[in-house]
Amino acid sequence: QVQLVESGGGLVQAGGSLRLSCAASGRTFSSFPMGWFRQAPGKGREFVAVISWNGGRMHYADSVKGRFTISRDNAKNAVYLQMNSLKPEDTAVYYCAVPNRHIIPTMPLPSGPDEYDYWGQGTQVTVSS
Fold first, then answer.
1. What is the pLDDT of residue 9?
2. CA Rg value for the chain
């Protein structure tokens, strides 16, 4: 059974930092991209960042570019999201996700929720002003 478990969320003041982790089990995802999404109350699920299978390519939402960094450790079957300069509008439940398909180098990295097949349960990030 595939499981994605996020951790590292919490309450932080504006301008602060958090590092989210997502540990996968039940299947090895070292040859698949891995992504992060978020969902604020009353809003749809929003793309945050994605990283290619070998870490050679990353893609970010414009709203987090320059503040967030995605990384992965294939030996640990894990993906991370370093979030700096946090803003109140970053408040949301953050989810890690993995698509059940390989992405060749000439293809864009997936950024739509419908492109992902495995999801974690989410971790709450709250940024106070």
1. 98
2. 14
Torsion, Cα 90 72 33 39, to 10 degrees, reads -20
pLDDT at 105 over 90: no
Beta bridge partners, 34, equal 51
Residues 6+ apart with CB under 8 A from 127: 11, 12, 13, 14, 16, 86, 87, 88, 89, 90, 91
pLDDT digits over 53-63, tens only? 999 999 999 99
Residue 57 burial (CB count, 10 A): 14
Q: Of 46, 59, 49, 120, nearest to 82 (Cα)?
A: 49
Q: Which one-letter amino acid corresponds to residue 60?
A: Y
Distance of CA 91 to the CA centre of its chain: 14
CA distance 88 to 127: 5
CA angle 116/27/81 to nearest 5° reads 55
* Reported confidence tier of residue 50, pLDDT bands at 50, 70, 90: very high
